[in-house]
Design brief:
Largest sheet of chain A: 7 strands, mixed
Helix content of chain A: 10-25%
Oligomer: heterodimer
Radius of gyration of chain B: 22 Å
CATH class of the largest domain in chain A: Alpha Beta
CATH architecture of the largest domain in chain B: 3-Layer(bba) Sandwich
Distance between the termini of chain B: 46 Å
Strand content of chain B: 15-25%
Radius of gyration of chain A: 22 Å
Strand content of chain A: 25-35%
Mean pLDDT of chain B: 93
Number of strands of chain A: 28
Number of strands of chain B: 23
Structural class of chain A: alpha/beta
Largest interface: A-B, 51 and 59 residues
CATH superfamily of the largest domain in chain B: FAD/NAD(P)-binding domain
CATH superfamily of the largest domain in chain A: FAD/NAD(P)-binding domain
Helix content of chain B: 25-40%
Low-confidence stretches of chain B: 470-485
Shape of chain A: globular
Distance between the termini of chain A: 61 Å
Structural class of chain B: alpha+beta
């Protein structure tokens, strides 16, 4: 069987950053397996700008951002196989993939980095009742049609979900001559970045209907109208609040799901909240030598953080291949009151790192709150935060002295978390 | 001039076309949709019922029993999937246990293997039965298929043996003349086509009464569709149930079922709501809520967070409460396969055999075709060994290009689905034949790729490509709504 020191599954922003970092740390035998025709992943269809402010200090388009990494992968001589889809991954890190060039290949990897990204939640997953005509797409599929295929899928559009792709597509469809009649969001707050709300909706006077959802789709062959209803605090539609919009297209931006079919098959433990692998401080999954980074681990808001996480995973993989990584008992990292999830989920206690960055999201918008870090049940640190939004990934760095003596658990929570802590609109 | 024109390319029409194509006859299979199997055949429970349920003395009982005994051989011959997964009918009260005993006696009287199992024994085989289940009727001969796969396979074989497949023909008028029928059909472009045939078969599903009325001026029966709504649940590493779970049947029908599918998904449904609208395939909040509530009486732990799709189908329920399979009394030469509601899928091969051999055979002599061509099943990449996969990709690199990652479908398979006899012309047509879009992303990733391949293969541009199979159902009509940028 063919062998490889490091196989990176996915040549998007996470996978490329991981491979580059591993190469820079001395790993020679690296193979990136990319299902698309070229590296870059979903960035290739994100032709709007705003990428790279943290990484490069400038605003790039998605393809330009990707190109910088693709160029680096090429100049470092990292092997990439495109049009290659990984079909199986086993617990012992053997994997098989298929491509037109190599056929069906089975290989044994010493180390695997999972960087498969995520997929969009489809209509069926959210159970919108109504007719099932053509004209309902996920925002990402519509983005592909518009940006890569040069094809406008509709003229009058309604969008369900205020995730970033939905907001971006509201602007994109408008710029291409479609009329976007509105965006409905189930929650009382938007799930997109503030800058996208401003630049994609407000600037184009596209109304945002908070606490609303689509309750009916009409149309026999093609969508002819959608009906939205206001929802109560339990997210149940309120009868009598219906509004109907005559549109030919409904785009869905109702959440992203980490693409972990392979991980599941390999027996890697997934976290119920992130739906990504449970990882330690090296981003190592529950199978030693398998690492995860980017949207396959948890859905990110900014590509810069994906890149940073990829770099971490690549460096950890290099260390795994070279000197090995600490093993032994670990403490769990828990998401307490007000916290949706917190990464990594476990930390080895016998070889504490010099510093540890926690990535987390809050459950609901928070204003002027105190974050508390508890070590084995005792509060060791509090931090004030002015605003925290579920749409934005938060990061918090702990130093070695914060962690010293850690045995059982590290817990992150919002002090005095209550419904009152919610950010009121406006 | 055809000998026989079949109106309706659902499962009954497809069996009829295939069975008739065995003989030296000129046969046409027409449908108003742009593909085969667009009505109830596309949206049903996909079960080959053992035949325990229909009331004695009905055509449903007769054809169900016959059909269920025919299917395994038919699927083997066609190269389509068939799995005898078995079924439980679950009883949740002493009254229902009484009904189970009656069903057991009925099944035994019909020679159907059946036994009653107590709760403990049933749980050993199906650990997710609901707490309220007291005992079950075990029906080991119940099976599952993929209904549209069978209809497409049958049609392919019919086409290979000379049947004309006339899709996109909406029958608007039928006139009876001395030597047969003159049928007017409207094509998609609005033009009218005249088809002539000695005999007609009405297998038009929810429109069967209208077709009859076109030929006779009135219809002695009427069809009132009954809508059934379903959830499709994602594949799981450990499937929740391994066999069909029925509740104890009531006057209202077989009830809400849990059905494993051939490809490892789980179907939950259907409800049963009469609807006057023969095109209404919309799901409803109330209908889906009913399905969720009812299934909890027989199966627990259903992962509703893993629903990937919900859909609705229409049963062609007739005013006579039974199938109508006969030569129309006042229109000689018109044969009816009408009101084929459940167990219609199971009964279809027996209905077709009866119509061909008994009804049509009594009018004309059936001379077997000299050279009957058998269908070759399409290649399924996933089913090959690694060595076979490599050999195939070396010969044709399109098999190395994965188009659909959820269901692992290659470009080679998509191309074959388009190029085969009665091949796909729409995105949905490809989906029905080789499954891209059936998986958990529901086409989010693969639909644009399939669209691109279809355009390339069939020589149409993206705005001209049709998404679905029914008339005028397009993602992209050229003109006002959609355009190239």
């Amino acid at each position: 069987m063919r062998t490889c020191d490091l196989v990176v599954i996915g040549g998007g922003s996470a996978g490329m950053a991981a491979a580059i970092a591993a190469r820079e740390k001395g790993v020679k035998d690296i193979l990136i397996l990319e299902r698309g025709e070229e590296t870059g992943g979903i960035l290739l269809q994100c032709i709007h700008n705003g990428f790279g402010l943290h990484t490069f200090g400038e605003e790039l388009s998605g393809p330009s951002y990707a190109e910088r990494f693709s160029d680096q992968v090429r100049s470092l001589g990292i092997a990439v196989e495109t049009n290659a889809l990984v079909l199986h991954l086993d617990t012992d890190r053997t994997l098989s993939y298929v491509s037109p060039r190599s056929g069906f290949v089975t290989l044994q990897a010493r180390c695997v980095i999972l960087a498969m990204g995520c997929r969009e939640r489809p209509r069926g997953a959210i159970g919108i009742p109504g007719a099932r005509p053509a004209g309902v797409w996920t925002a990402g599929a519509a983005q592909r049609y518009v940006n890569l295929d040069g094809f406008l899928p509709g003229r009058r559009v309604f969008i369900l979900g205020s995730g970033d792709i939905g907001l971006i597509m509201a602007r994109r469809m408008t710029l291409e001559g479609a009329k976007v009649l509105g965006v409905a969001e189930l929650m009382p707050y938007s799930n997109g970045l503030s800058r996208n709300l401003k630049q994609c909706l407000e600037d184009f006077q596209i109304p945002l209907y908070l606490s609303h959802t689509v309750t009916d789709i009409q149309g026999r062959e093609r969508v002819s109208a959608v009906t939205i209803s206001q929802v109560d605090e339990n997210r149940r539609p309120i009868p009598g609040s219906e509004k109907t919009f005559a549109v030919d297209t409904l785009l869905l931006s109702v959440g992203l799901l980490p693409e972990n079919t392979l991980s599941e098959e390999a027996g890697i433990e997934l976290h119920p909240r992130t739906r990504g692998p449970v990882v330690d401080e090296f981003l190592q999954a529950t199978i030693p030598g398998v690492f995860a980074c980017g949207n396959v681990l948890h859905v990110h808001d900014l590509v810069d953080f994906v890149t940073a996480e990829g770099k971490e995973a690549g460096e950890a993989a290099a260390r795994f291949l070279d000197a090995g990584l600490p093993a032994g008992p670990h403490a769990s990292v828990e998401a307490g009151e007000g916290i949706s999830y917190c990464l990594p989920q476990r930390i080895h206690t016998q070889a504490l790192p010099d510093s540890l960055t926690l990535s987390f999201r809050v459950l609901s918008p928070q204003r002027n709150v105190t974050l508390a870090v508890e070590k084995d049940g005792k509060c060791i640190k509090t931090l004030r935060r002015r605003v925290m939004l579920p749409a934005e990934m938060e990061r918090l760095t702990l130093q070695r002295e914060d962690l010293t003596g850690l045995q059982e658990s590290l817990r992150l929570r919002i002090m005095d978390f209550s419904q009152n802590g919610r950010l009121e609109e406006g | 001039m055809y000998d026989i024109l079949i109106i309706g390319a659902g499962i009954c029409g497809a069996f009829l076309a295939r069975d008739l194509s065995r003989y030296e006859l000129r046969v046409a299979l027409a449908d108003r949709a742009d593909d085969i199997a667009c009505g109830a055949t596309m949206a049903n429970s996909a079960i080959i019922h053992s035949g325990h349920d229909p009331k004695p003395g009905t055509l449903k009982a007769r054809f169900n029993l016959e059909g269920s005994r025919m299917y395994e051989g038919i699927c083997r011959e066609l190269g389509t999937a068939f799995r005898r997964c078995g079924a439980f009918v679950a009883a949740a009260s002493p009254e229902e246990e009484g009904v189970l005993k009656d069903l057991l006696a009925r099944a035994q009287g019909r020679g159907i293997p059946a036994q009653i199992l107590g709760r403990e024994e049933a749980l050993l085989r199906e650990p997710h039965l609901a707490d309220s289940v007291r005992s079950v009727l075990d029906l080991p001969t119940t099976a599952i298929i993929t209904p549209w796969e069978v209809a497409i396979a049958l049609t392919e074989e019919a086409v290979l043996n000379g049947t004309d497949l006339l899709l996109g023909r909406n029958v608007t008028a039928i006139r009876r003349e001395k030597d047969g029928f003159v049928v007017s059909a409207q094509r998609r472009d609005g033009s009218l086509e005249t088809l002539r045939s000695r005999f007609l078969v009405d297998a038009a599903g929810v429109y069967a009464d209208r077709i009859y009325a076109m030929a006779a001026g009135y219809s002695p029966f009427s069809i009132t569709p009954k809508k059934g709504e379903y959830f499709v649940i994602d594949k799981e590493k450990n499937p929740l149930v391994s066999r069909v779970i029925y509740p104890t049947p009531s006057e209202k029908g077989k009830g809400v079922l849990a059905v494993p599918t051939i490809h490892g998904n789980l179907l939950i449904g259907p409800n049963s709501d009469p609807t006057p609208d023969r095109e209404d395939l919309g799901t409803t909040a109330a209908g889906l809520a009913y399905v969720r509530e009812k299934i909890s009486k027989t199966v627990r732990d259903i992962p509703f967070h893993k629903v990937i799709r919900s859909f609705a189908g229409l049963r062609s329920s007739g005013s006579t409460q039974d199938f109508i399979v006969e030569e129309a009394r006042d229109v000689p030469g018109l044969f009816l396969a009408a009101a084929i509601e459940s167990p219609g899928l199971t009964s279809a091969p027996a209905i077709s055999r009866y119509i061909v051999e008994e009804l049509i055979g009594s009018h004309i002599s059936l001379r077997p075709r000299k050279e009957y061509r058998k269908r070759q099943p399409p290649l399924v990449f996933d089913a090959l060994s690694p060595a076979e996969k490599n050999e195939l990709i070396r010969k044709d690199p399109a098999y190395g290009h994965m188009v659909c990652r959820c269901e692992q479908i290659t470009e080679g398979e998509v191309l074959e689905a388009i190029r085969r006899p009665a091949g796909a012309r729409t995105i949905k047509g490809v989906k029905k034949r080789c499954r891209p879009g059936m998986g958990r992303c529901q086409g989010g990733f693969c639909e644009p790729l399939v669209a691109e391949i279809l355009c390339r293969e069939t020589g149409v541009s993206l705005p001209e490509l049709f998404y679905m199979d029914s008339q005028d159902e397009t993602i992209k009509k050229g003109g006002e709504n959609h355009e190239n940028l």
